[in-house]
Amino acid sequence: MSSVNRRTFIKTGIAAGAAAVYGGGIFSRAMSAPPPPDLAEARGKDLYDTARQAIDRLGGITRFVTRGDQVGLLINSPFRNPGTHTHPDVALAVAALCREAGAKKMITLKNPPGGYWEQAEHAGSEAETLTLLIPAAGAYSDHQLKGAKALKEADIIRELFAVDVFINVSIVKHHVGTGFSCILKNMMGALTHRTCRYFHMGTGKPGWYGDLDHMNRCIAEINSVRPPDLSVVDASSFILTNGPFGPGKLATENAVVAGADPVLTDAYCCRFLNLDPKSVGMIQAAAESGLGKADPTGARILNTGS
Questions:
Q1: Cα separation of 190 and 76, whole Å?
Q2: DSSP of 85-120, one letter per residue?
Q3: What pLDDT is attached to residue 31?
Q4: Nearest to 63 by CA among 228, 260, 291, 232
Q5: Minimal CA–CA distance to 193: which of 140, 132, 136, 238?
Q6: Mean pLDDT, range 98-118, rounded to an integer
Q7: Residues whose CB is less than 8 angstroms from the CB of residue 208 and which lie 6 or more positions away in sequence, other chains included
Q8: What confidence category does residue 77 fall into, taking pLDDT thresholds of 50, 70 and 90?
Q9: How far, in whole angstroms, is CA 242 from its chain's centroid?
Q10: Measured between alpha carbons, how far is residue 37 from residues 40, 42, 82, 290 in Å?
Q11: Is the pLDDT reported for residue 110 higher than 60?
Q12: Alpha-helix runs per DSSP H in the chain
């Protein structure tokens, strides 16, 4: 589960202290306010607006981003086929909200190919936002994972450790190996091919998916290095078969989900593929590692039925 950053800790401490000292009035009302939701879902055909609504329902972008922050965006980069990558209007909406919150710049940790942003319906009106999107330099750090059981080291894009806020922006879709791909799986986009290959074949068992237990454990452990502060899932149009590359059978939900807990976000999004989170190994492995909740039951969720 994403840890509370220093700014959030200080703000929470000040609010709690003021309420304790003064009591009553505005301070007691602030302290009695319900906690923000764990997850929020919005639906609509304009994906730019829908993504903004989902984040607003989660408590707003300022829950995660403050003025002057450098933000890292890990966007599930386009494959050739429909329903296999994050729609550019969803990613652009996230970047626009960061700009409006006063972010100094946004770094794309995995650089989308040429023409990606131009495909966004709102690209013209967000020209200023696009100027603040900076590609990662492409250098990787050899990171040692202390206490990890499956993944002892990994080559990770350096900017992941330099940004103030990390936002994972993925699509939900089928995966022929793991059965499911969303926020947790998207972390592999911040790694080199050498490290990703170890996820697949590190134990020496034959086949690209010869040891799924190992792969699921590696996915859980790489997410522990820097869990996202905010997770945003494109569930507008996605493949139900032949993932991650497609082509595959498409489902259309016109939904965007935003979450503060990456494990819970993945668990909730299993519904789009008619999956039980208990059957998804990476979700269970991440929950067992203490990264978040694997069961949406009891979570604070604002969705279309709320």
A1: 10
A2: S--HHHHHHHHHHHHHTT-SEEEESSPPPTTTGGGS
A3: 59
A4: 260
A5: 140
A6: 95
A7: 177, 200, 201
A8: confident
A9: 22
A10: 7, 13, 31, 19
A11: yes
A12: 6-22, 25-32, 47-57, 88-100, 127-131, 183-186, 193-201, 212-225, 262-269, 281-288
In angstroms, the CA 266 to CA 282 distance is 10
List, for residues 130-163, the tens digit of each pLDDT value: 999 999 999 999 999 999 999 999 999 999 999 9
Give percent above pLDDT 70 in the chain.
89
Between the alpha carbon of residue 193 and those of residues 155, 180, 188, 219, the distances in Å are 9, 20, 9, 14
Q: Give the global pTM.
A: 0.89
What's the burial of 1, exposed, middle or buried (CB within 10 Å: 0-12/13-18/19+)?
Answer: middle
**Pairing outcome for strands 301-302 and 39-43:** parallel
Average pLDDT over residues 228-245: 98
Give the pair of three-digit tokens for residue 234: 């494109």
Read off the pLDDT of residues 174-196 as tens digits, 9 standing for 90 and up. 999 999 999 999 999 999 999 99
What b/e string do you get for 254-291 counting C-beta neighbours within 10 Å, with b at 16 or more? ebbbbbbbbbbbbbbbbbbbebebeebbbbbbbbebeb
Strands 165-171 and 230-239: parallel
| Helix/strand/coil percentages in the chain, nearest 5 | 40, 20, 40
3-state class (DSSP) for residue 28: helix
Q: How confident is the model at residue 305 (pLDDT cuts 50, 70, 90)?
A: low
Q: What is the DSSP letter of 13?
A: H
Q: Rounded CA gap, 161 and 6, in Å?
A: 15
